[in-house]
Structure formats: C-alpha cells, structure tokens
C-alpha cells in the first residue's frame, strides 16, 4: 500500500499527463492549419509520449495494488496566434510538469517511499530532456524561423521525428 498522499498525487498525475497530450494535440492542430506539417508531426509525437507517461503512472499504481481514479481532462486553453506561441507555452508547461514530478518525489521522500522515488527517477531525467527540447524549439525558431527558407528547413527537420516507445517498461 502506498501512502495516501503519494497515491493521490500519482493518480492526479495520470490526468495531468493526459492533459499534456491534449495540449500538444492542440498545438499539432494549430501548426497543421498553418501548413507546417513538420511542427504538427513533432507535437503529434509529443502527444503520444504524454499518453505513454499517463499509462506508466496508471500501471505503477496498479502494480502497487492501488485504486486508479481517472479525473476530467481540461480543455486546452492556450491562446495560439503566432508560430512562437505554442513553443513558449510548451516550455512553460514542461517547467510546470517538472514541478509536479518534484512534488510527488518530495511526498515520497517524506514517507521514505524509496520504491516510488525509484519509479520517479525516470521522469526526473525525462523532464530534463523535455525542457531542453522545448527550449531548443524556441531558440531555433528565433534564429531561423523569421525567414521562409529557414522555416521550411526547420519544418522538414521536425517532419523527420519518429515515435519511439518510452525506455521505462513496467511489467
Ligand atoms: Fe510528461 Fe512532457 O512530460
């Protein structure tokens, strides 16, 4: 049995990760409508990764014999006008997700729940990559996105992104 606060935060994280997937799906829809299929692809794959994250939290709770309780997923509410808007919102969102992972980690630490801390280690590392990727998207748009050839090249680069399943496997 998990500590009730840790179990509650893990449950809530399922919904938060699904919201992340929904948010990135919204970004993908925005870029597709702009004719930027590469950016749309990048965020479509990002949405798939977030769904994977949600499944990992769900699976971990199930393995611990805990009740899984799914909450409502909010409507994506970021205002998207410019090509930069989703990128900035994406970095802010990943920073927020990092704070959520840290909060669960702190709750597990408080009750010496080393098993949950070890499970979360993968997410701590993943968040570093997520924030770095989000920051790179902004920097490249700032450097090259202002010119049509540069934007075309960036879009082609992001079109090449392929989905890979998470390296963390829970059986
Ligand atoms: Fe599930 Fe983008 O972190």
Question: Could you please describe the fold and organization of this structure?
Answer:
By secondary structure, the chain is an all-alpha fold. The protein has a single domain, classed as Up-down Bundle (Ferritin). Helices cover 74% and strands 0% of the residues. It is built from five helices and no strands. Helix 1 runs antiparallel to helix 2, helix 1 runs antiparallel to helix 3 and helix 2 runs parallel beside helix 5. The longest helix is centred in the C-terminal third of the chain and has 31 residues, at 114-144. The structure holds MU-OXO-diiron. The site of MU-OXO-diiron has 7 residues, from helix 1, helix 2 and helix 3.
Q: Write down the domain tally.
A: 1
Gross morphology is elongated
CATH class: Mainly Alpha
CATH superfamily: Ferritin, core subunit, four-helix bundle
Helical segment count: 5
CATH topology: Ferritin
Small ligands present: MU-OXO-diiron
Give Rg in angstroms: 17 Å
Q: Sheet with the most strands?
A: none
SSE string, helix = H, strand = E? HHHHH
* CATH architecture classification: Up-down Bundle
Distance between the termini: 18 Å
Q: Please report which band the strand proportion falls in: under 5%, 5-15%, 15-25%, 25-35%, 35-45% or over 45%.
A: under 5%
Which regions have little confidence, pLDDT < 50, spanning 5+ residues?
none
Mean pLDDT: 97
């Amino acid at each position: 049995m998990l500590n009730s606060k840790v179990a509650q935060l893990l449950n809530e994280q399922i919904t938060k990760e699904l919201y992340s997937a929904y948010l990135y799906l919204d970004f993908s829809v925005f870029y597709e409508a702009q004719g930027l299929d590469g950016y749309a692809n990048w965020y479509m794959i990002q949405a798939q990764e977030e769904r994977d994250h949600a499944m990992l939290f769900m699976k971990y709770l199930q393995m611990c014999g805990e009740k899984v309780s799914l909450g409502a997923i909010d409507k994506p509410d970021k205002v998207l006008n410019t090509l930069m808007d989703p990128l900035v919102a994406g970095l802010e969102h990943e920073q927020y997700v990092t704070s959520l992972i840290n909060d669960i980690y702190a709750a597990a630490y408080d009750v010496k729940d080393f098993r949950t801390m070890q499970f979360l280690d993968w997410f701590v590392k993943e968040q570093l990559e997520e924030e770095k990727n989000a920051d790179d998207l902004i920097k490249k748009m700032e450097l090259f996105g202002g010119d049509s050839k540069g934007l075309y090249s960036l879009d082609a680069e992001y079109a090449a992104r392929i989905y890979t399943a998470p390296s963390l496997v829970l059986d």
